[in-house]
Write a structure and sequence with these properties.
The structure is a single chain. The protein is α+β, with helices and mostly antiparallel strands. The chain has 2 domains: about 1-240, Immunoglobulin-like, CATH 2.60.40; about 250-375, no CATH class. About 35% of the residues lie in helices and about 25% in strands. It has 5 helices and 17 strands. The chain has helices at about 1-20, 250-285, 290-320, 325-350, 355-375; strands at about 50, 55-65, 75-85, 90, 95-100, 105-115, 120, 125-130, 130-135, 145-155, 160-170, 180, 190-195, 200-205, 215, 220-225, 230-240. The strands form 4 sheets. Strands 2, 3, 6, 7, 10, 12, 13, 15 and 16 form a 9-stranded mixed sheet that branches. A hairpin with a 7-residue loop joins strand 6 and strand 7 (about 120). The longest helix has about 40 residues, at about 250-285. The N and C termini lie far apart (about 80 Å).
Length: about 375
């Protein structure tokens, strides 16, 4: 899409240098100036305006057909960019129109002034069946405006691996714009197809006759039609059923392979997170020399023995609070507080897992609550 914008900006620069006569009110080739001081738009001169479609021609119509982005939703994403020219001697002040295929959804219409960075401004439109129409924007700039229509087209699920899109350029009584190629900007109709590698594209007219593009850029998926004679263009995008090497099979297996790698990476991360306390402890031990490790190991063993004996004694003490006097309960409370303090130190040093720390701490706190409850009753 960025490449298309670059091409369009370059094209518009050529337009500006070669021909300043495009567009509607306010552009070089029109009879009156629509801008006042400091760029303000003057009131429309009704005596110098026309609503005749005969004064309007299409100098370029870009249609981008994306068969990849919404493929999972079984939809084509369409973006049309239309450049009109007023060949009349009066300013055009009527409605512009275009035809959309059956089943078009998510329709949006916007306007973008040439060579202003590609920004678009939404505008309102009305719809009558397949026809959408909007009022031509009276502008203060001497540069022509682009009208951009975006929509999606639902595809019929037939199992043929084929997607299709139709565009009518001339509809009796509604649309009768003439497509006239201008040497300054190139072909009147440009089709850009975004498709999967290996897919083929075929064009046909309203009578089913095959249509061949005037110029083709296979790498960019761009097809140009100079001064087209057809009134309707049908686009058929067919997938390769044989899936040769480097096309569909590679895409499928490549996606599976990518998913497999992602699962493996996530699995490794989960293992590392679970193993972190053990790894941290090992790294801490490895930073000390042999003597320090022996000393630390001895201290750990002593602490574990002391803890086991303390916990065993404490458990025996805590199991039965009945018959304890105030002094005995006070001593038990001190032991519990000391045990909680020792537990906090071990956890901070990385010697305990989160789950082990939480369970032991909860056990101490439950017993402490029971002691406080009994002390409160005893006054």
């Amino acid at each position: 899409m960025k490449n298309i914008k670059k091409i369009m900006i370059s094209t518009f620069l050529i337009i500006l240098l070669a021909n300043a006569a495009f567009g509607f009110a306010g552009m070089g080739g029109n009879a009156s100036n629509t801008t006042g001081p400091q760029g303000a738009i003057n009131q429309i001169d009704l005596n110098n305006t026309t609503e005749s479609d005969q004064d309007i021609i299409m100098v370029q119509h870009l249609i981008e057909v994306d068969a990849v982005q919404l493929k999972a939703e079984n939809k084509l994403l369409i973006r049309e960019t239309l450049i009109f020219k007023n060949i009349g001697i009066k300013n055009f002040n009527g409605s512009l129109r275009t035809w959309l295929p059956d089943g078009s959804k998510d329709i949006s219409l916007s306007i973008s002034e040439m060579m202003t960075g590609g920004g678009t401004i939404p505008i309102n439109y009305s719809q009558d069946g397949n026809i959408i129409s909007w009022n031509a924007v009276k502008q203060s700039s001497t540069l022509p405006f682009l009208y951009v229509v975006e929509y999606t087209v639902i595809q019929n699920v037939s199992g043929t691996n084929t997607e299709s899109y139709s565009k009518k350029f001339a509809v009796p009584t509604f649309i009768s714009y003439r497509y006239v190629e201008n040497p300054a900007i190139g072909s009147a109709i440009v089709i850009k197809i975004t498709k999967q590698q290996g897919d083929t594209v075929k064009f046909s007219d309203e009578n089913g006759n095959e249509v061949v593009a005037t110029a083709t850029d296979d790498k960019g998926g761009i097809f140009r039609f100079s001064s087209p004679q057809f009134r309707e263009l049908n686009v058929e995008i067919s997938g390769s059923s044989l899936a040769p090497a480097g096309t569909q099979s590679n895409t499928v297996y490549g996606g599976i392979w990518t998913s497999t790698i992602l699962v493996i990476v996530i699995g490794i991360l989960i293992i590392l997170i679970i193993s972190y306390p053990f790894i941290k402890k090992k790294l801490k031990l490895g930073e000390n020399d042999d003597k320090s490790r022996e000393t630390e190991t001895t201290e750990i063993i002593d602490d574990e023995k002391e803890e086991e004996s303390s916990e065993a004694a404490s458990d025996d003490t805590y199991e039965n609070f009945e018959g304890k006097n105030v002094k005995e309960l006070g001593d038990i409370k001190k032991e519990l507080l000391s045990s909680i303090k020792d537990l906090e130190k071990k956890y901070e040093s990385g010697d305990l897992l989160d789950e082990e720390y939480e369970d032991t701490r909860k056990s101490y706190q439950d017993k402490l609550k029971e002691v406080d409850k009994r002390l409160k009753k005893m006054g």
